[in-house]
Amino acid sequence: NLHYDQCAIVTRNSDAELALRVTAAQLIKKRRHGWLIERDTKVFGAVSKPARQKPIQLEYKAVSKVPNRVPILTGGAPHYHRVVSEANDVFNKHLDFIHLFVCREDIFFWKVIMKGPFGTPYESGLWLLYVNFGEEYPRRAPNVRFMTETYHVNINSDGKICHQIFDRGWANGTTMVDVFTSVFDLLKEPNFDDALSTEKTQLKRDQPDEYHRQAIDCTRRCAHKNLHELKLQFQLED
User: Which of 149, 168, 181, 231 is 20 to 30 A from 111 in CA distance terms?
Assistant: First the structure.
């Protein structure tokens, strides 16, 4: 037998099965390596996986407009003008369910406050999300995550959002207005066929009232801060 990591064993069966098992072992090893790279070095103790390290840009001041002055290196990036255009488009659309703030020191990092949709377990809450535009944007979608804890089948404990717009539904022409609208719609209509949490999916199927209660409870515990409090906490300026 060939051994790959401690959680996968490759047996000498068919070539197809061998390749499949090797690929699975490599993916598991890569994911664990990613957890270690992105782990929060300030968190200790026994955990199921390391706590995700928060982006340093969350500590930067952000403003509700495109900054007039940005670092020279930022302006030299090839996708700089696209990011500026997307920010201006969001501001000009005046979306009533989000507040956008662009980091002064890093225009490729946005902070977003999203309102919970009316008529859902999230309607009384405000959530902080961040957007991080990588070097491959717009060929690839930006990294968009919830910082505020959310009880939702398509959002995991790290704030990762499972939606096709970030994967197979992404295109070079996809706008950030499209992205924010899709995330907001996901809060209104969770996709239980493409869930990140099998436990929550099963709870919704077997005990829908309990699922609804837990979502409301999480909103009250984690998303209860008002706009002024969030602005102070995350250094957001109008």
Answer: 168
Q: Which of 76, 103, 110, 102 is nearest to 183 (CA)?
A: 110
- CATH number for the domain whose boundaries are 56-237: 3.10.110.10
Q: Residue 37: how many CB atoms within 10 A of its CB?
A: 9
Residues known to be catalytic: 162
Q: What is the pTM of this model?
A: 0.77
Q: How much is the average pLDDT of 89-110?
A: 96
The Cα diameter of the chain in Å comes to 63
CATH 3.10.110.10 residue ranges of the chain are: 56-237
Contact 47, 25 (CB under 8 A): no
Structure-token pair, residue 234:
């995350």
Q: In Å, how far from its chain's centre is CA 151?
A: 14
Residue with tokens 């699922």: 211
